[in-house]
Amino acid sequence: MRKMHYFNITYICDSNCRFCAANIGIINRSGYTMSPNQFEEQLLSEDVQTDDFIMISGGEPSLSPFFWNILDICKKYNCIIELTTNGHLFSDMTFAKRLFSYERVNVQIPLFGLKEKHDYLTGCKGGFDKTIKALDNFAGLVNDQFSVSVKFLLCKATVDGNVMGYKFCYDRYGDKFYYYLNALFVSKKVKKNKEELLEPYSETIKKLGDFIEYDNLIVDTIPLCLLSNEKRNKVLKRRNYDFKKIYSDAKTNEKDMCNYLDDKCIKCQVEKYCDKFLPSYIEYFGNHEIRPL
Q1: Each residue of 60-98: pLDDT tens digit?
Q2: Which of 80, 86, 154, 184 has the fewest CB atoms below 10 angstroms from its CB?
Q3: SS3 assignment, position 144
């Protein structure tokens, strides 16, 4: 079975996102950074194989002093790199082309609205312009091996920003990129900003209206029972293989990242293919939204 290896390689970050899953600005102030030796040893302990996925995140992973060394290790084992980044470094075409040289890469860049909204939610003035410049650079590089995903967030604070951000990007880049909607992770930092950010997923989905039904919007990490029949069927058609998830972050307990398997979920026909709810979400909102199919 193929594996997805998840790594937060650093807690260094040039943003201060209000919904940071890694709690930057609350904990992890030391800027913990994984060394190349630690990274490779962990991969080997997980029996890394050709064509495994390696998810590289942070913090902002491109700010790690070992960023390129770690990508070299991914390439050494012929793995597919899934890089989550704010894109700021890659607003410089030199670095965008350097990343492109690794070939088997999917770059995942979050967008939380247009200029003022994005900069406010990320706590980084000028961040939107850098992110768009990176997307502009990548638009001329994408091919069958090198892809880009623009990621939107299922969150109370990003409802309007998702729609506007999607329209901006689709008008500018069309089908060169993939477009994703991901669920909010209920971290300590999210709870700190709960009035602004938190409401049940089902309520946010209602507010999004037709947006979530867009044909080319890929829904990820959102429980299948919250989706319309049509959208759920599209998701199921995409999920045609299984892979084992392994979390390798020295600051994160794996149990906090594994899907929550409620008794209701066990009875569901699509349980095997569902991302379900994470424990932090169930702890905060309870399990009343779970509807076995």
Answers
A1: 999 999 999 999 999 999 999 999 999 999 999 999 999
A2: 80
A3: coil
Q: How far apart are CA 236 and CA 225, in angstroms?
A: 12
For the whole prediction, is pTM greater than 0.90?
Answer: yes
Q: Coil, helix or strand for 115?
A: helix
**Among the listed residues 153, 90, 92, 163, the one whose alpha carbon sits nearest the alpha carbon of residue 121:** 153
Q: Which domains does the chain have, with CATH numbers?
A: 3-259 (3.20.20.70)
Rounded CA separation 180/218 (Å): 5
Report the alpha-carbon distance of residue 251 to residue 32 in Å, rounded.
Answer: 9
Paired with 247 in beta bridges are: 6
Written as six digits, the tokens of 197 are: 């950010």
E-assigned strands of 77-128?
A: 80-84, 105-110
Q: How far apart are the first and last CA of the chain?
A: 26
The Cα-based distances of 183 to 108, 118, 283 in angstroms read 15, 17, 16
State pLDDT tens for residues 125-140.
999 999 999 999 999 9
Instruction: Dump pLDDT digits (tens) for 224-268.
Output: 999 999 999 998 887 655 677 777 764 554 545 566 777 888 888
